[in-house]
Amino acid sequence: MPDVRFHRGEGLPLEMHKARIVQKLELKPIEERAASMAGAGYNTFLLRNSDVFIDMLTDSGTNAMSDRQLAAMMMADDAYAGSETFYRLDETIRRIFGKKYFLPAHQGRACESIISQVFVGPGSVVPMNYHFTTSKAHIVLNGGRIEELLVEEGLDVTSEHPFKGDMDTAALSSLIDDVGAKNIPFVRIEAGTNLIGGQPFSLANLREVRGICDDRGIMIVLDASLLADNLYLMKRREEACADMSIEEITREVSDLCDVVYFSARKLGCARGGGMCLDDDDAYLRMREMIPLYEGFLTYGGMSVREMEALAVGLEETMDEDVISQGPEFTAYAVGRLRERGVPVVLPAGGLGAHVDAKAFLDHIPAEHYPAGALAAAFFVASGVRGMERGTMSEQRDEDGSEHPAHMELLRLALPRRVFTVSQLEYVVDRLGWLYENRHLVEGLRFVEEPEILRFFFGKLEPLSAWPERLVEQYTRDFGDSL
Length: 482
Hints:
The protein is α/β, with parallel strands linked by helices. The protein folds into two domains: 5-59 and 322-478, Alpha-Beta Complex (Aspartate Aminotransferase, domain 1); 67-319, Aspartate Aminotransferase, domain 2 (3-Layer(aba) Sandwich), CATH 3.40.640. It contains 19 helices and 14 strands. A five-stranded mixed sheet has the order 2-8-7-6-5, with helices on both faces. A three-stranded antiparallel sheet has the order 9-12-11. Helix 3 (84-97) packs parallel to helix 12 (304-317). The longest helix is centred in the last third of the chain and has 16 residues, at 421-436.
């Protein structure tokens, strides 16, 4: 292992790559940023990327590919059926995850749809460490409901617990006793729990969950989209994993689960996704859905070029130097934000830095979307696009009332091998300024509100003229500076 000081929490993160191709960015004046934000209905998803300086909305499909991945894309076999490209990917996945079958899909939510259609029905209960927006939506659409069984520390923003994505195993046993094992089609575990700050689960916890499920005859389904970060944090934080290779940790995690699915927009730094499993009956039931919704069994909605890139990307995921980049740059950003007094989710997890909007804007109630307001305000102040992960990302209750999220977070995703330390320093500087002027920011309200996944394309408006006041204060402090 290379001697990298930041592995011990000291100094700067070290890029384990060099830049060979660059893409020009533009930082527009604050008046134009404010106009763009208003035109997007104060929803960062609806911004045009040409108006964005640094895009930290997501790491999904925005990671930098390696030279080996780009080279592999030139070798693709463009056959509709029986492509040799598929068989190269299939062999790689079998070797890494150790599963008998691989079913390709165009991305992770397609996997969620198929898994839910095959296994979930009216009255089903799906326990999970924590939900993701689309996974919950597919379960509910098929007549089921979810039960979040996160450990207590998971919802404590400032807790330094190393594995805040762990499942409460006592609560799991109790739930199974209450609803009956026959009503639980599977237990879902999410690697790098997205909505609570990219927090990992431990190998020890997964083993406990496996023991409970074995006793009751229940499957475990793993969302491995953020597995790379989870693997790295296991290796660094869990004593039992310290002497294991990334390949060994991966195989043990996979062996403890019945179905492993992932979005390759995250895992493997490509596009696409898929499902890995051993059970013959489950495979046959799921296989029928691929031609119906995705494409033929040897491409499943993916281009063959992306499949070649994914095969290489998954191999590279087994390299600790490769998967260190996301968590280490995240840790650096979180540490620098803390130095400026900005409230953040601790400890630094995977995916990106997560700002505690509830503490940042403690004068804004949940029904006025503090995380959404913070995302909009930060774009105006910086040109940096983050994502709301709070009450806006929930759905209203059946009576039309708001369903407040457990956390109100501004997610600043850090795609792998994309941003430099100086760009992170700019993000820290502008967010620090906004925190000093947080009293200027007020809430939002919906003016166009879809019923499902409203955070993707709903439009909002400010409750007052606070964006104009923010621009005025910024101009006083920075003059003509962008």
